Amino acid sequence: MSGCGCGCRCSRKLTLAMSGFLIILLAAVAVGLVVGLGNRDDGDEHTFTIDHEANTFLMDGKPFRYVSGSFHYFRALPDAWRSRLRTMRASGLNALDTYVEWSLHNPHDGEYNWEGIADVVKFLELAKEEGFYVVLRPGPYICAERDNGGLPHWLFTKYPDIKVRTNDANYIAEVGKWYAELMPRLQHLLYGNGGPIIMVQIENEYGVYYACDHDYLNWLRDETEKYVQQKALLFTVDIPNELMHCGKIENVFATTDFGIDRINEIENIWKMLRGVQPTGPLVNSEFYPGWLTHWQEMNQRRDGKEVADALRTILSYNASVNLYMFFGGTNFGFTAGANYDLDGGVGYAADITSYDYDAVMDEAGGVTPKYQLVRDVIGEVLELPDITLMPAKRLSYGKVQLKPSMELLSIEGRATLSKGTPVQSEKPQTFEQMDQYSGLLLYETQLPSIDLDPTLLTLNELRDRAQVFIDQQFVGILSRENRIYSLPLSKGWGNTLQLLVENQGRINYDVLNDTKGVLGDITVQLHNGGQLPLENWTTTAFPLEEASVEAWRKQRSNKELASNIAAQKILLTGPILYEGSFQVQDLGDTYLNVAGWGKGVAYVNGFNLGRYWPLAGPQITLYVPNELLRLGDNSIVLLEYQQVNKSVANQELPTVQLDAVAELDGNTAHSLANGDFVLNGRIKTLNHTKDEL
C-alpha cells in the first residue's frame, strides 16, 4: 500500500552497430521500439531496453536484472543520505527506488522548494556516486503512507470539485505545471543522458483506483515522455488481481507487487501479469520485507528468514525485484498519512511517525538481522561490493526535565503561535480554506441558551480529533478514529464553546480528498429532540511551524505559569508548551522517550520530529538523528495536548528520556475489536488496504 507503480516504454531487442547506428535508430523510433538512448558522461552511447524474446532487460545490449531497495529522500536528513545509500549498496543492491513527493516541493500554489530535505537532485547524484542505478517514481500520486498520498493540500481549496487522478482538466493542468518544474531538473540524470535513472514511473497502483481512466493514463504517459524522450523506460506497477487491466497503459512496461504472504501464489501472480503483458522480464516492484503501522494497533513485524526465503523464490524466476522498504526512515513533522477501510469495519486510522516498517535497515539506518539474511540471498545472484560499514553510535543522554512555559490558548500563546488573522464565518473554516497544511485549528462560538441539562453536542464530519472546551475548561475529546462524535454539555458550564481540532494525517490511499477540520454542522440537542446548528464561528490557525515554535523558545518571556496550571497532570485548560535542554559531549543517534505523556508534537533544536502518542502506541520513542544535535547545549520542546507524565504527581518537573534504543512495540495489548484478527500470533488490522496480508 505504500508502493506504487511506474511505467516503461516497451521495446524489441536492438543490436546497435556503430556503422549503421543512425539508420537503426530512425527505424526503431518509427515503430516505437527504442526506450533508452543517449550519451553518458563517459562518451559512450547507452541504452536500456527490453528483449521480449528472451524476457529480459538489456543494458547497452547485454542482459540485465536489478535488485533494488526503496529509500525515500524525504524520510532522512540530507546529511544522512550518503551513509544510508552506502549501507544499502553494501548489501549487494544494484539499484535504488525512490518517490518524488509533489506536496513537499510545491507546498503552496506557485511556491516551490528544492532545498535541504527537498534537494532531490543532490540525492540522485549521491545515488549515482554510490554506484546505483535509479528507479524513479514521480507519481504524481505516490501513496507511500504520506499525507494525501503526496498530493498538495491546496489543490482541494483551489478546485473544490477536482477529481484527482483522472482526466479532469484542472488536475491535468496542475500536474502539467508541476512536471514542468520537476522534470527539466532531472533530465541530465536519465540513463540515456549519462545519469543513473533507468526507469520512470507512470502513476501508482492505478488498477485499484475507482476511476479506471485511460484517457488520463495516456495523457500522463505522453506528458512524462515529453521530458524522458526515450532516455529511460516508462513502467507501471499494479496489485496482482482482476483489476490489473485498469492500470495497464499501451506502450508502457507493466510490473506487479506482492509480499511474503502471497509467495505461495507466485505462479498465479506471474500468470496474472502475463495476462496484461505476455512478454518481457518479470518484475516485483514492491516486495514487502515489513509493513506499515497505525496508531492504536500492534507494530507490524515480519520474520527475516521468511523474507529471505521469499526473495530467493522471486529471484529464481530470473525476475527483477525491489524491496519496499529497504530503508524506511521517519515521517518527520506532519507528513505521516492515514488509511481508511470502511468495508473492513475499521474506518480512519492514522499512520505512526516512524516509518521503520520493520524494513531491512532500521529507522536510524542501521543493519538488522534481516539485513544479513537478505544480503546473503542477493549475493547468490549479484556480486557483493567490498564495502566496510562503520557501526553507528546510539547514545543515551538520560533524563531531561521540561518546564511548563506557555498555554497555547492564552493571549501569549495565540499571539506567538497562531498565524494570520482569525477568520469570522458562519461555518467553521477547514484547514484547506485556511491554506494550512497541518497542526491545529481553534473554532470558537457563543453557546445559545440551552434547554436541556445536559444537552448533546455533535460534530458532524469531524476530521480528525477535537478537544472540547467551554470557557477554556476541558470537557472532553471527540475522535474520528474511534467514531466518537458527540458528548454531553451541562447547562451551567459557561458561554464560549471552543473546539481545538487536530489534523492527524490525510488519507494516502484510495480516498484522496480528505479535507480537514469540521465539515458538517456542529449542533446541540433541543428539548423537542431536534438539533440546533451552531453558527458564527471564529477560526484561528495554529500551523505549529518550526520557525514559530523556535522563535517563541528563543524570545519567550520568563513569566511563570500560575502554579495551579503548571501543576496539572491532565491539561484542563488546553495544550501547554514544555521546554528544556540537555548537554551533548559526544554526537550519536538517540531516541526521545515520551512514555507517560499523552499526545502532542516534539521539537529538538527547532526541528519538528513529528507526532507522539504513547497513550495509544505502539510507538513510544521518536527518532532523533545525530545530524540534528550539536556539541554543548541542545533544546527540547513538547507541545503536549492532553497529559503530563507521572512525575508531576511528586511535585517535580515532568521529564522525558533520551535513550539509546527505540521502542516501537509498546502499548500493544489491544482487544480484538473493529475487525482485528490474529495472524501468526500477531494482531493484524483490516485497514491494511492491500491484499498481501
TrEMBL record:
Per its record, the protein catalyses: Hydrolysis of terminal non-reducing beta-D-galactose residues in beta-D-galactosides
- Top-level taxon: Eukaryota
Q: Which keywords accompany this UniProt record?
A: Glycoprotein, Glycosidase, Hydrolase, Membrane, Signal, Transmembrane, Transmembrane helix
Q: Which Pfam families match?
A: BetaGal_ABD_1, BetaGal_gal-bd, Glyco_hydro_35
Q: Which Gene3D superfamilies match?
A: Galactose-binding domain-like, Glycosidases
Look up the record and give one Gene Ontology term from the biological process aspect: carbohydrate metabolic process
Key word Cell cycle present: no
Gene Ontology molecular function terms on file: beta-galactosidase activity
Domain Beta-galactosidase 1-like first all-beta: start-end pairs: 428-539
Q: Please list the residues that make up the active site.
A: 205 (proton donor), 286 (nucleophile)
Which SUPFAM superfamilies would you find in this protein's record? (Trans)glycosidases, Galactose-binding domain-like
Give its E.C. classification number. 3.2.1.23
Q: What class of enzyme is it?
A: hydrolase
Residue ranges annotated as transmembrane are: 16-38
- According to the entry, every stretch annotated as the Glycoside hydrolase 35 catalytic domain falls at 56-380
Q: Which residues form the Beta-galactosidase galactose-binding domain?
A: 575-634
User: Which organism does this record belong to?
Assistant: Drosophila lebanonensis (Fruit fly)
| Protein name as annotated | Beta-galactosidase
User: Its family?
Assistant: Belongs to the glycosyl hydrolase 35 family.
